[in-house]
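We close this part of the discussion by returning to an individual protein. In the encoding step, the backbone of a single protein was reduced to a row of integers, each denoting a local shape. The sequence in question and its structure tokens are set out directly beneath this paragraph.
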Amino acid sequence: MTTADTASVADRADARRALAAGVAPRRWGSWYVAEHRLLAMKGYVGEAVFQSFGNPLIYLFALGVGLASLVPQGVAGVSYLEFVAPALMATAAMTIAANETTYPVLMGFKWNPTFFGMNAAPITGGQIVNGIMLAILARMIVTVTIYFGVILAFGAVPSAWGVLAIGSAVLTGMAIGLVLSSYTSTIKDDRGQMAMIQRFGIMPLFLFSGTFFPLEQLPVYLQPIGWISPLWHGAELGRVATYGLEEPLWLTVTHVGYLSGIIVVGLWATRRHFERRLNR
């Protein structure tokens, strides 16, 4: 065998090893990325745990107990605590979504471009998006479940179907997170867009989505904010589950369909933006 033949055999062996090494990432890439994101979250696990336990306690004491004393008649036939608790749980999911889909997504492209490193391995942009969302979903489920346990302890869940509010809150958070990630994945230069999202996106949703009072009590010209807000749809679903809010069946179906539709479109848009940017 000549030297050239020996080199050719070695090249083919290297190629086979390279192809074999890429099988697992191509198949399980989304889960690898999810594992990476969950390990990265260990860097702020203390803050996450504090938020999971501290936020519901503080909000429920301040609003459900303190402010509720000023509304002794309750809202919509239930106590103020029962009215506000499912909306606060959905808000917790929204906060996680906003935290995990703004700066972390921008960082993966710009300051610590791990997304390009992942994409250099046999992991596609779509798998990276799937992995990020799986990690966010895991964190969200844990936090919302803890939140539900707290409002249950406060006696704010009179219905046996209340546990379904966990699902509605997660649905809300994922819908908002995918809208945000589809936008932040297009940002190339940080010019304060993240702060603008918090001030002019997240905060108005928090205030004008029927979180603290029924949407019908808002001025007519502000009510459309609630109609298009995923948080309002999620809060209403939570109220249906936790205390049996009376509303037409078609409206409950609309809440689920609206949030599900945003998730599908948001996931498609985010995957498309990732693929374009990573393969440019």
User: Anything to note?
Assistant: DSSP finds twelve helices and no strands in the chain. The mean pLDDT is 87. The CA atoms of residues 67 and 275 lie 48 Å apart.
